[in-house]
Amino acid sequence: MRVLAITALAFSAAVFASNYILPPAWLPALALLCAAAGGAILLPRSRWLRGFALLAFGLAIGFGCFWLNARHTTVPAAALDGETRYIWAEIADWPQSYERYTRVVIRLRTEGLPPLNALLYDNENALREAEPGQRIELEARLRPADRRYGERYLGYNARDIYLIASSRGEIAVTEDAPGLRYWPQHLNRRILGLVRTLFPADTASFIEALLLGDKTELYRDEALYQALNRAGLMHVVAVSGMHIAFLIGLLRTILGRSRACSVTCILIVWLFVLVTGASPSAVRAAIMQTLLLTASLFRRENDPLTSLSAALALILLGNPHAAASVSLQLSFASIAGILCFSEGLEEPLYARLPSLRSRFLGRTAVGAVTNSLSVMPFAVPLMCLHFGSVPLLAPLTNLLALWAVTLCFCGACLLCAVGALCPPLGKLLAWLLSWLVRYIFLTARWVSSIPFSTVYLETRAVWLWLLLCYALFLAFRFVKRGKLVRLGIPALLSVLSLAALLTAARLAYAGETETIAALDVGQGQCLAVLSGDNTLLIDCGGLGTAENAGEIAGRYLLTRGRWRVDALILTHLDTDHVNGVDALTALCPVKTMILPEAEDTGNGMPEEIKAAAARRGTEMRVLREDSLLALGGIRVQLFAPEESGTPNEHGLAAVVSLGDYDMLVTGDMSRTKERALLKQHPLEGIELYVVGHHGSPYASSRELLESIGADTAVISCGYNTYGHPAPETLLRLAECGYTVFRTDENGTVEIRIGRDHG
User: Fold this and answer.
1) Strands 151-152 and 147-148, bridge-based pairing
2) How far apart are CA 148 and CA 321, in angstroms?
3) Helix (H) or strand (E) holding 567
4) Which is higher by pLDDT, 628 or 646?
5) 152 phi, psi to nearest 5 deg
6) Rounded CA gap, 229 and 394, in Å?
């Protein structure tokens, strides 16, 4: 069995290296070199060298497999970059509809084109009612799926999607009956409809995600999503090994532990995996459970390490690009942590409290805590890398809520069967089960409300603290004391050092220094002003980035000990200035929101902002005339918008003062509106200018730049197709003597101002 483990791990290591490190041109040579090395090692026929030969052969297969796969996927996709083709395709999954477009995965069936999966953006919403298996014909512009917002992105390739297609003109849809290959998608939709029929509206979205991994509706409730995320409970709605363990436990409770039950479990587990979309984490669990159940059928011993490595190799053999899947990485890291550390954590607890082992509730509680702690050594670095955060109280959340999640999953499975046969009884039982779901929500909201329940890696100090934690646990590993001492002391030191770090950060931003920050929210704007205990934000939106501007702003504030926002000023209601408001208010309550008269710009933002403010009790003030706002040491002159002009121009402007230090914010004003502003309000003695309209050539007139007399300018911009910041704008700023900082090049720009405002 170890032979398989060595070969599988070497193969997987080669695939990961090919994904992240090695240039594609090197792979054929490396494959041949490793194969030759393996053959050379075998020549002496030395038994102890056999392991190195297996290692070399595994690497050779990994490099070769990735190279061959790329020749049939990413290479032909790159060759189609920028081309507009008339294509025939087959719809591979249910469409996801949004206000302005529909998105759907298709399989190309066009002669002369590779049969690749593509993500089609239907700009006319013609596919809103389409079904998997239907054929479509359309003209589309194609580009590779391995770049997003101008940067390398591997997430689509990990899902076996290699092209992005944008529709041009009409789409012809056939009425052909869907083929049998799409029966899992249709069964998924039937179960989804059943859940929505049986469960109340406030709990149906959670059950959909728990049973089927469909988080579309769950994401719409920003406050609930943020609570689950910060409490460390989002993993329960990502279909994984936990769900398969629940399913097998339910089946064995009903069917017993016979051989027939084992075969039934294997069949139902794979049915569940197919219906839920066959995510890498679910496939991993299904392979491991299949090996475990098969071993019991033939009375063979199961080796967890071999099962884990074989599962990883099989997934990567099917799609080597799946190595970039975050769910795959977290799933394997979590299981590896449980295999390595769980038993060692349980033994000291059972040794001191032996009664826990004999009680079901005791074993359940111990398992929830030890498994939660066991996954952290390997999973935390991945969470930091992919999400920039660590939910510190996840073990507490799991202790309080995992038992309820187990009952919800098993209960929902049974309820779907009952509801299909007797809908009235199913609705009654679903109403009762919903109270357990609401308990999970309550737990998540309570845990997430605890200060620093989640630590965000916004600063270098937090990264250093994380390294210190690993160093402490590693150092105490060699201390010749009991396990509780070797684990308890570094855990205590980690908590104390984190408390000291966060206290120092809070004092640094509430002491003798005042701060202005232009947050890196992509092509958008979000400005934070901190003074003492007061917090002001101006705008909160961004485009051209995978991150939500509200989450970026929330992380920035929470890391600095800011639990609320005194005032949020919205210069205007364009998407790139306001689309993060909902997420921001979910993370940090906003006391007052100030905005210009809401206009219908076609983006739905006014209604969304009003709804977010109503849900969180935020006071809304519409600015119709010039006014003054005072927040402790922060003083803001607000200039009401003129009635004429485009929606961009129908925005407010502000001068933010911290003592004698002044910052001018003009939003997306045009040069015409800038001149009108100067005529009505002579602006002088400004120190910092936030460049208008992200550096557009139609803003930041020479008259404004010379009149305000500032010497520092910040441009809030990111990936865009408008050419912002424009070369002529940058030239004007340089000619007027401005020192320019850009968020697309410098990241978040933070300006510290002392009490003397020097």
Assistant:
1) antiparallel
2) 16
3) strand 565-569
4) 628
5) -65, 135
6) 10
State the Cα–Cα distance between residues 706 and 515, nearest whole angstrom: 25
> What six digits make up the tokens of 405?
């999640």
350, 748, 334, 329: which is closest to 525 by C-alpha? 748
Nearest one of 25, 24, 31, 16 to 61, comparing CA atoms: 31
Distances (CA, A) of 669 to 73, 344, 475, 536, 641: 46, 63, 58, 21, 10
Residue 758 pLDDT exceeds 50: no
- Contacts of range 543-546, beta carbons closer than 8 Å, 24 or more positions apart: 543/575, 543/576, 543/579, 543/718, 543/720, 544/149, 544/150, 544/718, 544/719, 544/720, 545/149, 545/521, 545/718, 545/719, 546/148, 546/149
> Which residue, chain included where needed, has tokens 């910092």?
688
The structure tokens 């997420």 sit at 583
Q: Using CA atoms, how far apart are residues 659 and 632, in angstroms rounded to an integer?
A: 11
Q: Are 715 and 725 in contact (CB under 8 A)?
A: yes
User: What is the token pair recorded at 717?
Assistant: 């911009």
- Determine the 3-state secondary structure of 522 from DSSP: coil
| Pairing of the two strands 117-122 and 151-152 | unpaired
The secondary structure of 213-279 as a DSSP string is ---HHHHH-HHHHHHHHHHT-GGGGS-SHHHHHHHHHHHHHHH-SSHHHHHHHHHHHHHHHHHTT--
CA dihedral 274, 280, 281, 284 (to 10 degrees): 80
pLDDT tens column, 491-541: 888 888 887 877 777 676 666 578 999 999 999 999 999 998 899 999 999
